[in-house]
Amino acid sequence: MASNGAGMPEGKVEIVPTGNEEFDIKLGGGVPFPSLLIIEGPHGTGKTALSQLFLKGALDMGLRGLAVVTESTIRGYILKSEAAGISLTEHFLRGRLDVYSTQFEGSRWGRRSATVLLDLISRFLESESRRYEVLLVDSLSHIAIYSSPIRVLNFFNTVRLIADRGKLVVLTLHEGVLREDLTTRARATCDGYMKLSLASLAGKTVKVLKIVKLKGARSQFDPTITFDVDPSFGIKLVPIALASV
């Protein structure tokens, strides 16, 4: 059977543990590989931290990663991983992780630039996908909101094809950015769809992950995972007994 270059056979679903044992148990062992995952949620719900956890788990397994970030600089993205207790620094310095950012001096967001960027990112992922086993975009929000429906659908078709070639593709997206019909199409296209929200527990705000679907999970997964992000411990699970959601 052919290999994708990272020791994982093509055409077979494997599991990539995140390295967080408690979280992996909740996920049914880890993240299915290959797959297309979408993480959706409002601002401040932990989309970046969760996607970095998945990315780090894959990098720790010896896979090569590519991250395209739209909400921070390259340095800022790496520092975010440090602040979340999910350090990507060593992988970045050793060349196992390449990070590209759309944030640069003098750049301005607008309808025209966002539309161009979505097409550019789509072509970039397609051209670079042979060099990496894991590809991440954090986040699609600022570029998808201004793009036409056909461009958004073309983007999802591109990443679907990339995942089908034996890659793990992770996308983050703010809730409500896409039209409802596009959101429905995106959910149908992906293998894993996860929604994040905030909840109150004993006066403390925690993050709630609801796994809408996760194709290829090795065992039964917990559909609801409650956690917080601790700089010392990374993603830390908290009891599920919520005061209110």
UniProtKB/TrEMBL annotation:
Pfam name, any one: ATPase
Gene Ontology terms for molecular function: ATP binding
Protein name: Archaeal flagellar protein H homolog
PANTHER family: FLAGELLA-RELATED PROTEIN H-RELATED, UPF0273 PROTEIN TM_0370
Annotated keywords: ATP-binding, Cell projection, Cilium, Flagellum, Nucleotide-binding
All residue ranges annotated as the AAA+ ATPase domain in the record: 33-198
Tagged with keyword ATP-binding: yes
Taxonomy of the source species: Archaea, Thermoproteota, Thermoprotei, Desulfurococcales, Desulfurococcaceae
InterPro entries given in the database record: AAA+_ATPase, KaiC-like_dom, P-loop_NTPase
